[in-house]
Description:
The chain is an alpha+beta fold and 192 residues long. It has helices at residues 8-21, 50-60, 89-102, 110-116, 125-139, and strands spanning 32-33, 36-41, 44-48, 145-148, 156-162, 175-181, 184-191.
Amino acid sequence: MIITGDDTKEIERLKGSLFQEFEMKDLGNLKYFLGIEVLRSEGGIFLRQKKYILDILAETGLLDCKPVDTPILVNHGLQILEGAEPANQGKYQRLVGKLIYLSHTRPNIAYTVGIVSQFMHKPQKHHYEAALRIVKYLKGTVGHGIMFKKNEQRGIYGYTDADWASNPIDRRSTACYFTFVEGNLVTWKSKK
């Protein structure tokens, strides 16, 4: 259980109540949880999944690969092609599932992961190569994550964008949004 807040007296009271009802142990400040590293500094709290990325790189055999600058090619045009070579569906689904989980601390891959996740039911070789490109991008950005800090900016701000029916098959749009609270990114999503 993770307990968070700025009222230390209330946190201690809650922990005391929990210790009376359940057999629990206080492990101190959160450092690592479900593959997410939690790093504290004077500047704020930084979340990243460095070990998780390194595990993906090792599993895909790309630990020594040359990193790429972007997670997807511009005007990628990914779609299911008639007669294209199929990919191993289980392997593809495992990789894309890991990338979906990774997007919890990496909003910069949310759009790309949304694109490759559209082909989970019938992945082809070029879809798998696109997913591997995301992994190669991660190789060059292993230490990236999200920073939560106190700052002077007040309020809640949201931004949205859409590509307006750019999918050549079904003419559907891909939309995304980002929400900032007190200047910190707290929600993001990319969806077809």
